């Protein structure tokens, strides 16, 4: 199973990604988490990424593509994966297509979480207090939303043309959203 979860910053992708990945027994690969881990370890990749992340801008495609390529080459991702936060640009879509084609598989589904803009800013500012993420200040949150609308929202149309998009209402209780995703994917949750 090869899946993508998409949606604006703060839509709850990371939370839902964990449940989906657990169900399909595949790794949830979050580019944001990998970047943050590199930043806290002070790696070269982390130093490069931090400049962009702190400003709410995207890390350059070459850097991100290589990182994802290496990650999905790891043994735990051979039978499938769920990508959270990638692809985010049209160039990344093409790159991912190439990576998946190379393995002889296909992209099975794109789960797209939809949420209201104002609700999102509130959620992100709350998360800032809990997690203390450097990119959760109000200005940066707004910039991340702009960048999402400009660069990433158009990707949904690309995948819609392929008929693999499941649009899911991301508002409400976490468990309800998970339920909507599972029913869209025809999954019968284990009790
Ligand atoms: P959110 O979904 O809340 O915006 P993420 O944790 O997914 O946050 O990403 C945090 C930051 O990491 C992004 O704002 C961006 O700078 C960088 N990043 C993550 N994924 C990508 C990507 N696919 N391409 C470029 N930059 C990325």
Explain what this protein looks like in three dimensions.
There is one protein chain. This protein is of the alpha/beta class and 191 residues long. The chain has one domain (2-185): P-loop containing nucleotide triphosphate hydrolases (Rossmann fold). The protein is 58% helix and 12% strand. It has 8 helices and 5 strands; from the N terminus they run E-H-E-H-H-H-E-H-E-H-H-E-H. The protein has helices at 13-24, 31-41, 44-55, 61-72, 90-102, 117-131, 138-161, 174-184, and strands at 2-6, 28-30, 81-84, 109-114, 165-169. It has a 5-stranded parallel sheet. It is globular. The model has no long low-confidence stretch (mean pLDDT 92). The chain binds adenosine-5'-diphosphate (ADP).
Question: Helix and strand layout, with pairings?
Answer:
Layout: E1 2-6, H1 13-24, E2 28-30, H2 31-41, H3 44-55, H4 61-72, E3 81-84, H5 90-102, E4 109-114, H6 117-131, H7 138-161, E5 165-169, H8 174-184
Parallel strand pairs: 1-3, 1-4, 2-3, 4-5
Helix pairs in contact: 1-8, 2-3, 4-5, 6-7
The chain binds adenosine-5'-diphosphate.
Adenosine-5'-diphosphate (ADP) binds near residues 9, 58 and 92.
């Amino acid at each position: 199973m090869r899946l993508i979860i998409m949606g604006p910053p703060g839509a709850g992708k990371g939370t839902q990604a964990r449940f989906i990945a657990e169900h399909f027994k595949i790794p949830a690969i979050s580019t944001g988490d990998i970047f943050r881990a590199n930043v806290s370890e002070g790696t070269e990749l982390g130093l490069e990424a931090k400049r962009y992340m702190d400003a709410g801008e995207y890390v350059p495609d070459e850097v991100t593509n290589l990182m994802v390529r290496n990650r999905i080459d790891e043994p735990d991702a051979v039978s499938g994966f769920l990508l959270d936060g990638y692809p985010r640009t049209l160039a990344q879509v093409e790159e991912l297509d190439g990576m998946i084609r190379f393995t002889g598989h296909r992209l099975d589904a794109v789960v797209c979480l939809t949420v209201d803009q104002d609700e999102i800013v509130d959620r992100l500012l709350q998360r800032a207090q809990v997690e203390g993420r450097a990119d959760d200040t109000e200005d940066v949150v707004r910039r991340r939303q702009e960048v999402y609308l400009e660069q990433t929202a158009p990707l949904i149309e690309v995948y819609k043309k392929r008929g693999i998009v499941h649009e899911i209402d991301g508002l409400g209780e976490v468990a309800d959203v998970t339920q909507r995703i599972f029913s869209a994917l025809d999954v019968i949750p284990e009790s």
